[in-house]
Amino acid sequence: ENLVSLQKNWSNFTSLNYWVVRDYFLLVDMVNGLEPRIRKLTDEQ
Length: 45
Known about the structure:
mainly alpha, rod-shaped, 45 residues
């Protein structure tokens, strides 16, 4: 019984971890994509 719940919790944790990491990398990609545009804006001002 305990082992089953432990496995379930572990899989929940690892899948949550996966989503967090994936979202983090998506966010980093977005920021990296925006950075040149922001730099161009500040250069024009």
